[in-house]
Amino acid sequence: MLSVLLPTGVSSLSRTFASEVIKTLPTYKQFKKKNTVHNRAMSLFNPPKGLNFFKMFQKAYKQSKRQLPEYNAFSGALCYSGFSLLAQKPYNNIPKIMGFVQRVWKKDPMLKDPKELTKSIKFAAKFLGADLVGISKYDPRWTYKENNRKFSKYKNSVVIGIAMDDRALSPGTSFLSNAEVSFTYSKLALTLTLMTSLVKTIGGKCQGTINEALTIPMAIQAGLGHMGRSNLLINPEYGPGIRLANIFTDLDLNFDEPIPDTITPVCEKCGKCARKCPSQAISHDKKPSYKSPTKSNSIGVLRWPHDPEKCWSQWCKLGHDCVECIRACPFRKKSKKRGEYSPQEFIEEVLNQ
Ligand code: B12
Ligand code: SF4
Ligand code: SF4
């Protein structure tokens, strides 16, 4: 394998070993972490005036050029919320400043105007990894009955969407497409962790959820799209290949409006997902209805019926999940105009990007 990387004419016998490329003296010793400037500044020496980073941050934060977006208190809070995952095990790089930022924010809230706060929260969601963000009023119909006590104290739901890489879904249902599903779930978890830290830092109460509330109707109310025959939320830009999560908050935020439904008329004529579904879980009906095929569906909602038990049985047959209803949809955002990717093409492209 290594010889492939060698220039022509260089035999593998005369090649340099990787360990010989970087020269060190025999006196070289492994460096002790306790001697990094971070560690020494915090524990080993008393930093002279002007060199105490945390104190200087506090000073900078208090004196921040608050009229400038890149220097206002919200950007300061965003800057430290970005560390919140790093503060957790096993990374343990704990930013001790967070409590200070919270105290300053409480005394002097920067964003009293809901319009400005809404804009900042949406900016933060996208900055922290969301492809889509919309806000809907808290609606108890879209929380599980068991979660009523946990969530009913909140005013709104900030719904975020992260797109899956269509190239990984393109070759069809496989471990590779599953890897894209699981990786996107982890991306949602990262964005939610940082966002909830931000909301708490600026003095709000919140709860981030992944699959702990019915995100599709919340996303419709938040203006992110409409649900198709496939029972997937279809966003005009990303199609159905988007994964959803949300943060319930008590912040005073403005709500979005649902966008016009351009999806249902297309679904009425198309039906491709229903034809392609290997378990025939998707309805071939002409129109949405109030039907609930199984006990695993909620009752009394006008939408395309979907049979989750047939779908689940297909997953059980495969031993992993299925993405065929996403792939079938003409609203799917194709990554490449000339058509589908083969698994090998996708792997090569990722290696070279
Ligand atoms: C359980 C579940 C499943 C189950 C069963 C689905 C079901 N209908 O019960 C199984 C394992 C089969 C499944 C399969 C898939 N799932 Co799933 N699933 C969920 C989960 C975790 C809970 C949904 C639930 O409680 N269903 C039980 C009752 C409520 O189901 P229901 O009455 O049939 O309602 C469904 C829809 O009609 C809609 N809905 C509910 N109420 C209302 C009200 C209105 C007005 C409308 C319009 C819609 C609507 O939401 C439900 C979604 O299943 C959600 C996350 C979440 N919490 O929302 C993800 C979720 C719906 N799944 C998702 C996806 C992508 C898939 C798959 C493509 C798998 C994959 N590889 O990713 C397939 C697609 C199947 C399909 N065509 O629907 C995404 C959808 C993203 C999107 N763009 O819409 C979600 C939101 C997960 C996520 N975090 O992104 N899933
Ligand atoms: S995930 Fe597969 S089995 Fe389930 S509805 Fe979609 S296409 Fe059908
Ligand atoms: S494949 Fe066709 S019918 Fe199914 S959701 Fe997409 S547009 Fe609608």
UniProtKB/TrEMBL annotation:
Q: Which parts of the sequence belong to the 4Fe-4S ferredoxin-type domain?
A: 256-287
Q: Which Gene3D superfamilies match?
A: 3.30.70.20
Q: Which InterPro entries match?
A: 4Fe4S_Fe-S-bd, 4Fe4S_Fe_S_CS
Q: Which Pfam families match?
A: Fer4_7
Tell me what this protein is called: Iron-sulfur cluster-binding protein-related
